[in-house]
Amino acid sequence: MTVDGTEIEYVVNKLEESQAGVERLSLVMVDLKSFVAAMSVMAMQKRKNFLSAADFLPGTFRSPNDHFVIYIKNQYLNKDIAARPQVTGGVRLGRVLKLWRLLANPNSEAAKQLLTTGRGETYYSSVIRQVTLDWMALRDSKWQDHAPSAKLRGLATLIATYLMRGISPERKKVGAASTCSS
User: Fold this and answer.
1) Which residues contact 50 (CB under 8 A, 6 or more apart)?
2) Cα separation, 93 vs 138, whole angstroms
3) Mean pLDDT, 10 residues at a time, over the chain (182 residues)?
4) Where are the beta strands (DSSP E) in the chain?
5) Dihedral sign (CA 94, 96, 102, 104)
6) DSSP assignment of 77-103, as one string?
7) Which of 43, 47, 159, 163 has the fewest CB neighbours in a 10 Å radius?
8) Does the predicted TM-score (pTM) go above 0.70?
């Protein structure tokens, strides 16, 4: 359980793509569903705007993960907890730039499969295209003969993507990481 903006996110460790992974995921989901159901009942019974580890059965959370407060907005009191499950696929850092190059083309099969979330491939491909740089043209002025590794290029590409997503088109502050031009 971790904070994701104003929501709670439940993170499951990597699972193998095998029958054992399917069985493990099934157990995790049963456990998660029962925990969320208990949390929902507890929130309705307590009728208060927050829950802490002390509201749960002893031993539910082990230290240091037993120091938290879950704030419940008034509009959500006495309502079941809702969820939007998502799956996040892992990509090796050294392969990120290659994936971004594929996704930067809204007509590619990769973009059509991975970027269809309501706004469409064109929007996300344009964001990705802005950070898909020609790394061979970039040189460190103090380290002329250095070629950045694939992992470093992937990391810089991910950072640039987050920075681009945090920019308001009108250059207004958006409460997230952003860049500014000087």
Assistant:
1) 69, 70, 71, 72
2) 19
3) 73 83 89 82 78 84 81 79 72 86 85 68 75 70 78 84 70 52 39
4) 2-4, 7-9, 50-52, 69-71
5) negative
6) TTSPPP----------GGGHHHHHHHH
7) 47
8) no
